[in-house]
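User: I'm putting together notes for a lab meeting next week and I want to include a structural view of one of the chains we've been expressing. I don't have a solved structure, so I'd like a prediction I can at least talk through. The sequence is below, exactly as it appears in our construct file.
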Amino acid sequence: MQRRASLVRTTTETDIRLTLDLDGSGTAEVATGIGFLDHMLTAFARHALFDLTVAAKGDLHIDFHHTTEDVGIVLGRALAEALGDKRGISRFGHAVVPMDEALAEAAVDLSGRPFLAWAVTFRQPKIGTMDTELFEEFFRAFAFNAALTLHLTARAGSNAHHVAEACFKSAARALRMAVAADPRTAGVVPSTKGAL
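Assistant: Thanks for the context. Below is the predicted structure for the 196-residue chain, given as structure tokens.
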């Protein structure tokens, strides 16, 4: 079974084309017009072992909010579509990732219940030209549109770049675990309800 999705989302604010392969090798081609977001999405794909292409055009002359949030929306919808009915997956994943002085922890449940618990703070308001407050917006949009529960916690860190990167990498590693096939439950939805 091929666990892939290709989506297009066009609004008056953004135009996003995205493809996602959950069983890839971690290759990424990302162009959002926001350099740091491209860097984070490339790291995300590499550590999740997802193949990801993103081509986004947005109203960056206003700010980076709409593009960042809408990429999260489309990535979340693509993940949900690629997972299908979630038969045979591990469902849960967790990871703790250090990056120099920073340490981030992610826990995910592909539950069908959208929720983001965000316990991450940044000492700097920007990384380059990107507002650090936008990372919460990205992950909220992603979690709610993928219909998953995601807890992200920064355990340590003073450098905003390191904190953000540890968050993306820990989320990727947790998702890599959660979407993986569980050979002991092949063909079974991992829920007592019989559906996720």
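A couple of points you could mention at the meeting. The CA atoms of residues 18 and 120 lie 27 Å apart. DSSP finds four helices and ten strands in the chain.

User: Perfect, that's what I needed.
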